[in-house]
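Quick log. Single chain, no ligands specified.
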Amino acid sequence: MLISVIQTSTSGLNATLAGAAAIVACAFALITFDRWQVRGQPHELAWTIAMTLFAIGSLALWWAEATGWTIFVFRIFFLSGAVLNVGWLALGTIYLIAGKTTGDRIRNYLIGLSAFSIGVVLVAPAKKEISVGEFPSARELFGVTPRILAAVGSGVPAMIIIFGALWSTYRVIKKSSPTISTRNVRIVKSPLRLATSNILVAAGTIVLSASGSLAGRLGKDRAFAVTLLIGLCILFAGFLVATNASQTTLPVTTGDKLKLSANHKRNDARRKNRKQ
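-> predicted structure:
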């Protein structure tokens, strides 16, 4: 009786954490979607898709902790929370540091890979039944292909996000445009805020990748719930800080640079006049 009560209490806490993570991801997705509609920046659409996938994965975890795991719920959780979400998050980083041309090319490959992954994970035969009260293991349930997709879909994009954040921070410290491509320039009004944002993004990505390390201490369910919630909160904070940094992306043409510089000078002069 006591064990049953403890298990119920644990599942309730895990469901609460997963539900909170879903709320954060939904709020993040709604904000980025609204800004994409207003400004039409491709990285904001990529983040919207990524946060929607994080929300779906969090909701799947919440549902499983509240009602019990089924193979269908685990497929949704595995697909959205382990295979697809980090890749679309990394696409936003690619747009920011490499420009629209490279980003569009990667996006087309990512769409094809996402469609392939959805088909594989949804039809992959399960090797065993899910045990009641246990967090399912992809290694025990699925064959090699779904697990390779999860490893590649999470590991490689996570490295891209971390590298992009560190690269951008380094460029900001060097007072240069935080991009790799020379065809676009990002004008940074607040280097400190942008550097802080990059550090938060890298930290959030590392936390989201740490569920395996915490599983031995907290249990698989709790580890995924905790890392989802904390990692998403850190990413959200990084996004909000970056928004305040007010960065602008432009193609690198002499005319555009001169126009942008003149506009900034006029705006700065107007602000000084208003203060006076």
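Residues 2-39 form the longest helix (38 residues).
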